[in-house]
Amino acid sequence: MRGAVWLVLIACVVVLSFLILKKRLGIGWLTVFGAHMALVAIALYVINYSGWITQVYIPINPVTMGAVTVLGLPGIAVLLGLKMILFGQAM
């Protein structure tokens, strides 16, 4: 099982590297992605510790940050909805 995971990881890195070099994206996309990740972390921190939503806590980890980075701010609403539905937390 570990071998399969490493194989998938290596294949993904190779394909991503090929796409970056083929499209000649440069380093600019990393700056934009890093800025989005920072904004997502700040948004999740504000939601968790501001007191706006007192019953729900969304952990700040790579999975939640990735989901919100891809989905944007509606991703936070999706995570809040899933948390409340799956774990039965009410606002």
Automatic annotation (TrEMBL):
Transmembrane regions listed in the UniProt entry: 6-21, 28-47, 67-86
InterPro entries per the UniProt record, alphabetical: BofA
Top-rank taxon: Bacteria
Protein name: Pro-sigmaK processing inhibitor BofA
Keywords: Membrane, Transmembrane, Transmembrane helix
The keyword Membrane belongs to this UniProt entry's keyword annotation: yes
